[in-house]
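Entry, Tuesday afternoon. Goal for today is a structural model of the target with nicotinamide-adenine-dinucleotide bound, before we commit to ordering more compound. Inputs were pasted exactly as handed over by J.K., no edits. I checked the ligand SMILES twice against the vendor sheet because last time a stereocentre got dropped in transcription.
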Amino acid sequence: MAYNLLKGKKGIVFGALNEQSIAWKVAEKAFEEGAEIVLTNAPIALRMGTINELAEKTNAKVISADATSLEDLENLFKEAMAILGGKVDFVLHSIGMSPNVRKGLDYDALNYSYYHKTLDISAFSLHKVLSTARKMDAINEWGSVVALSYVAAQRTFAGYNDMADAKAILESIARSFGYMYGRSKQIRINTVSQSPTQTTAGSGVSGFDKLEDFSDRMSPLGNATAAECADYCITLFSDLTRKVTMQNLFHDGGFSSMGMSYRAIEQ
Ligand SMILES: NC(=O)c1ccc[n+]([C@@H]2O[C@H](COP(=O)([O-])OP(=O)(O)OC[C@H]3O[C@@H](n4cnc5c(N)ncnc54)[C@H](O)[C@@H]3O)[C@@H](O)[C@H]2O)c1
């Protein structure tokens, strides 16, 4: 059911690779709620994924941008504003990748060049998106930016590896930029800390199936799905949450407040 929560709003959605992607669900819901959107992803993702199907469904243009490249990001905001006919009201940052996780290197034996890449792609890219948008004055006053995080930013999860460091930095960037952008333009910036979700990025983490099962049994409401995460993101883009900023918001069925649950210990 749609509520027209984003009627008249324009946005940029980063990170829809395929139908499983959290960003895919956010794009679908944003469109259902009346928003006009531009989709973007890295050049390789545009070749490997199925984003054009989503573009057709959501009446959106796709612009290629590597989120670690300031030049690509400038071009993205310029083109997006031309397509949408003005500044944007919301941005979804749904980007994560660790070459160390991909190559199966443990946390005590990281490849440092990969480590830099993990941080650049999964965390600094949020800084780059925000600083480009601010320089170009590309986001309307009272706009909203949401980035996706995971509870491994606060607590240790075996196998989450250097992505935990990336998420801790990501959440800190959301706070630091939330202060600056809030003071100057009333733009709010939050991270949503989502349950384990079966996606290309999610299932790359070692032991993912067991983590997902444990997390589901630990959470009183069970794991949150990608579609439920999208619903939450839509509320954060809407005018109903205008004073929520600089927060890391758990969207995890209660997992982050649990210590022990009977369902988790009963195998
Ligand atoms: N799946 C989970 O269990 C889970 C849980 C909590 C948080 N998250 C976070 O949600 C976000 C989205 O991930 P997902 O689970 O939908 O997986 P996904 O693999 O569908 O999305 C990750 C996206 O990042 C994009 N990306 C990678 N490098 C990029 C670059 N250089 N420039 C631009 N885009 C780039 C990929 O192309 C892909 O579209 C990530 O930040 C992830 O860490 C995922």
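The chain has ten helices and seven strands.
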